[in-house]
């Protein structure tokens, strides 16, 4: 059910984001109210997002090194998304509704075919890893058929905390909050909140275990500042960190043979 009043907190949060398509329907949209997707400012915002996503996915200079490509892509993501921290990696292609409603922390990694429908605010913390074909939906509709015929939509915010690992093919539905330190197994459908430091799998996703808490780090500070060793070596620290995470999950689960969550 759509909200009936604007959300001052969401509107205030959007003021810190870049390239926001401000208009009455935008404020209604991020507030979870019914709005018209055909508002000119929103149509222009979606067009801009698609143009930037195509440019990003097609960008691969012949003389690029892994380091120069990472640096160029970082700059492109800073233009495409509302806010993004240092050392972000998104493997193309990706698709978003607006991009401007997405806020991402430091050391973010997304594998191929990321989809984020960011009609509502989508907030992702530091050191979050997404497997291939992860889909994050903040957009939804009423079940009333005439409402859909009239092009009326609404949204619910999605939040993913720090140090999360979301397995490939996972779908995260509108209104979900995933707490810090969570792991979500491949192919899961997340329909409700997941508490911090949990491992969840399935459709709908359910918590099957919890993991040890770790110390909180300062928000937005990269732990991979020196990950580029030279022009031909990239993401070494990130790969090592991902391996440590996998080893930790396998060890706690008692697995004897390697397996992949992403």
Which structural class best describes the helix and strand composition?
A: alpha/beta
Q: Stretches where pLDDT falls below 50 for ≥5 residues?
A: 228-238, 252-262
State the oligomer. single chain
What best-fitting shape do the alpha-carbon axes yield?
globular
* Structural domain tally: 1
CATH structural fold name: UDP N-Acetylglucosamine Acyltransferase, domain 1
How much strand content do the residues show? 15-25%
CATH 4th-level superfamily: Hexapeptide repeat proteins
Q: Give the termini distance in whole angstroms.
A: 33 Å
Mean pLDDT: 88
Keywords: Acyltransferase, Transferase
InterPro entries: Hexapep (IPR001451), Hexapeptide_acetyltransf (IPR051159), Mac_dom (IPR024688), Trimer_LpxA-like_sf (IPR011004)
Organism: Exophiala spinifera
Protein name: Maltose/galactoside acetyltransferase domain-containing protein
Describe, in short, the structure shown.
The protein has 262 residues and is α/β, with parallel strands linked by helices. It has six helices and 20 strands.
